[in-house]
From TrEMBL:
Belongs to the F420H(2)-dependent quinone reductase family. It catalyses: oxidized coenzyme F420-(gamma-L-Glu)(n) + a quinol + H(+) = reduced coenzyme F420-(gamma-L-Glu)(n) + a quinone. One of its GO terms (cellular component) is plasma membrane. InterPro entries: F420H2_quin_Rdtase, Hemerythrin-like, Split_barrel_FMN-bd. One of its GO terms (molecular function) is oxidoreductase activity. This is Nitroreductase family deazaflavin-dependent oxidoreductase. Residues 150-291 form the Hemerythrin-like domain.
Length: 304
């Protein structure tokens, strides 16, 4: 849900394929939909954006207000967001830049849109620069063409596996940075950082949503049509519960990144990765054969 002042802009944006008039006319505008940190409801806001190569940037400026905008607090709690640019819609992971990277990106922002420099001059807070990373599968053995439900599920599994590799690589890079800071006279070691936190949270939130959909919809339907797979589905459901427990422990650890133990993070992430990979392998082996008979996308049912 959006605020009254934003609603006309949002409606005009969606009606006219991303084109709006008034103060936004001619500017680069997107719609960002976040999930409320407290309410859990969806909130959509129109925001100016800046491109930096392939990166898509938004700034939590609030026109230089003394507090961060609500949408920024929402994406810290729920990094998975929806982005609309023109007629294109896609899911993204919202990652605030930190330190030297933030300063470099903000300098680029000001070169492109000098008004953000004026906003920064109005407030003592450092204006966050948020990178909107597309949530598309990155690499792996995803099917080139999705024609059935097994293909669609494999596409999701590929994304999950690629995100696991991505997060693990970030954690390894963090430990390399820790090693570089060891020794007398060295500066303080870097904390875990928002980048690792946001990617871990996004992964966990997507995984939770995916498993909930399987438990509530996919598995009951498979059971109805293939009752001989009952024990297999029971095992998959139990594995979901195990993964959820490990996932919950990881999310709890990430609640306060300033005090989180990096060694504990790596341990919890490895435990989750081992359990999840085994679960995905078993699911693909056990129920994908029957899912290949289900066309995707589902055929349209003619209205009476």
């Amino acid at each position: 849900m959006s605020t009254d002042v934003n609603q006309p802009v949002i409606e005009e944006f969606r009606t006219n394929g991303g084109k709006v008039g008034g103060p936004f006319e001619g500017g680069d505008l997107l719609l960002l939909t976040t999930t409320g940190a407290k309410s859990g409801s969806e909130h959509t806001v129109p925001l100016g954006f800046i491109r930096d190569g392939d990166q898509l940037l938004v700034v939590a400026s609030a026109a230089g207000a003394p507090q961060h905008p609500v949408w920024y607090h929402n994406l810290l709690a729920n990094p998975l967001v929806q982005v609309e640019i023109g007629t294109e819609q896609f899911e993204a992971i919202a990652v605030p830049a930190e330190g030297e990277r933030r300063d470099r990106l903000f300098a680029h922002v000001v070169r492109e849109q000098p008004g953000y420099g004026d906003y920064q001059a109005r407030t003592d807070r450092i204006l966050p620069v948020v990178v909107l990373e597309r949530g598309d599968p990155q690499d792996g053995e995803a099917p080139a063409e999705v024609t059935n439900l097994a293909d669609k599920m494999l596409e999701v599994h590929t994304w999950l596996r690629s995100q696991l590799r991505h997060v693990r690589a970030e954690v390894d890079a963090h430990f390399a940075a820790l090693a570089a800071h060891q020794g007398p006279g060295r500066p303080p070691a870097p904390g875990l950082g928002l980048q690792i936190r946001q990617h871990c949270l996004a992964f966990c939130q997507f995984l939770e949503f995916h498993h909930k959909g399987e438990d509530e919809h996919l598995f009951p339907n498979v059971r109805n049509y293939h009752p001989h797979l009952g024990s297999t589905l029971d095992r998959l459901h139990e594995e979901h519960q195990t993964v959820a427990r490990l996932q919950g422990e990881l999310v709890t650890l990430l609640a306060d990144i300033s005090s989180a133990d990096p060694e504990r993070l790596r341990f919890e992430l490895d435990r989750l990765a081992e359990e999840l990979r085994a679960h995905l392998d078993y699911e693909e082996e056990s129920i994908f054969p029957v899912l290949r008979d289900v066309p995707w996308p589902p055929p349209q049912v003619a209205e009476a």
